[in-house]
Design goal:
This protein has about 140 residues and is of the alpha+beta class. Helices cover about 15% and strands about 35% of the residues. The strands form three sheets. It has a four-stranded antiparallel beta sheet with strand order 3-10-8-5, with no helix packed on it. It is elongated, with a radius of gyration of 19 Å.
Length: about 140
């Protein structure tokens, strides 16, 4: 997947927005293709591009974030057992070495730990989802100090 295992559609739309934002004049039509994924946008004659794409930031929204990534191919679980509270929620503070999830591979359970202190900004992968090596699991706003 592009951009460090980010959602392909999100990555394509962000790339398209950066491209459109860097053009000197108005853009009437844009098409971005990556593999089977195609993002196509067309504006009526004379339409302002800035008004057409306000929801997509032209600056990388990931700036300053650190990601806890999958150390192996496995199934991700966000809680120690079904029905239990998750290890972390968005807004929680974590410290290095704190367990934030668990991976199951070949009937073995492997803890996933935060490697930096910070605030959980977003849990990027749903519970009980297969993940790939290096896939971003949790976004952290790193604490200073």
């Amino acid at each position: 997947m592009p951009e460090g295992n980010a959602d392909p559609l999100d990555a394509a739309v962000r790339s398209l927005a950066r491209l459109i934002g860097s053009t000197p004049g108005p853009v009437r039509r844009a098409r971005l293709q990556h593999g089977d994924l195609v993002v196509e946008v067309e504006w009526p004659e004379g339409a302002a591009v800035a008004a057409a794409v306000p929801a997509v930031p032209l600056v990388d929204a990931d700036a300053g974030l650190h990601y806890v990534c999958a150390p192996m191919v496995a199934t991700l679980y966000l809680a120690p057992s079904p029905g239990a509270d998750p290890f972390v929620r968005e807004g929680d503070q974590v410290v290095p070495g704190q367990q934030v999830a668990i991976l199951e591979a070949m009937k073995m359970m492997i803890p996933v730990e935060a490697d930096r202190a910070g605030e959980v900004v977003k849990v990027l992968v749903p519970n009980a989802t297969p993940v790939e090596y290096g896939e971003r699991l949790i976004a952290l706003a790193v604490s200073e100090g």
